Amino acid sequence: MFLRPRTLREAVEALEAPEVKILAGGTDFYPALGERRVAGTVLDVTAISELRGISLGPDLIRIGAGTTWTELIQTPLPRCFDALKAAAREVGSIQIQNRATVAGNLCNASPAADGVPPLLILDAEVELLSNRSERRVPLGDFITGNRKTVRRPDEIVSAILVPRTIEGPSAFLKLGARRYLVISIAMVAAVIAPDGRGRVRQARVAVGSCSAVARRLEELERALVGVAVAKMSEAVELRYLDPLSPIDDLRGTAEYRRDAARTLVVRALQACAAEGIA
Length: 278
What we know:
The protein has a domain at 170-277: CO dehydrogenase flavoprotein, C-terminal domain (Enolase-like, domain 1). Helix content is 28%, strand content 24%. It contains ten helices and 14 strands. The chain has a five-stranded antiparallel sheet, with helices on both faces. The protein has a four-stranded antiparallel sheet with strand order 11-12-13-14. A three-stranded parallel sheet has the order 1-3-2, with no helix packed on it.
């Protein structure tokens, strides 16, 4: 069965039935099927206008779950979103960016999902809606493992919510076998808030593709507070990457991933420093 509701209320009512699969951009949905046919009911949410668009409030920025990466790139946003926009430009080809949704990237829950580290450093939350309730879950708690999230079968992601808790330059860097259209070996997102006197007031750093889920490097973040912006990269010691658990696979060894992640952290902080000092 194929359903195409026009309102969120119709969508969550449809999710009360068993074996309903949500279809948004379809850029992960169809490749995952391979040669198999779709079983159960497909709920196409692309006609729901409530899921589209980005709204900027004084305390919160709301990204509708159906917002595409192209729409995000084209929306004027604070520079702390520059890392997310840089990641958006690497989510497949332009054709994919025109169809793929921000929420779909999170729900797919790949360890190499480009959108996760830049949203982690923004303290993003996932808004989940069912026919009975609404809840907000920190992104760090939403994704629990490889292809695993806390979304219940009767829930739909309605938005990604970003509190305006940090303002400053941000950067996203990704290492792969080639520049574009590749699953990353390691990726890093970073954002800093200078204190106006050349030192770091706040810092956030997240690493993807080096664990089953992307990780914030919270000990490093604390160590950077008070450091001169121009010297941040000198503070990046290998021990700060201990929360990561890289694996050996066809794209690289665990040792190579860890070393690459450190290098990317250094370069991301250098990029933030260049913007912060300018």
